[in-house]
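dude i think i finally got it to work??
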Amino acid sequence: MKINVKRVDKNLPLPVYETNGAVGFDFLARRSVTIESSSIELIPANVIVQVPEGYSLLLFSRSSTPRKHGLTKPHGVGVIDQDYCGPEDEIMIQMYNFTNSAVTIERGQKIAQGLFVRTDRFEFEEVEVIRSVSRGGFGSTG
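look at this
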């Protein structure tokens, strides 16, 4: 399947899958951004992506980012909807610096990974009883 992508800065490459077995692809920082200690910043990812109907694009931290840079996504996962693809809808990667020092992400640096996921839509039907017996509450299986 092909995905329509517009680069904001044509001097940076398109996202790529780094290996044949990779399910996620990397986003690159369009400009250098310094994130102060205990702060959140948005890092422009240089692309506007037209997510196909029936899919969502999920944004995750790269596995090495917390260890190498002291950064993480503050909400865990970012969600790019199918209708977020207008001329000003560049993907922005929100990152939190959990270290005691400022961290600089350099232009062209890999900053996050994306994963296309099939997404169904459902109708909600309200009922009076879901199940007659409760499982036991939050964390009851562990």
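The first helix runs from residue 65 to 69.
im so relieved honestly
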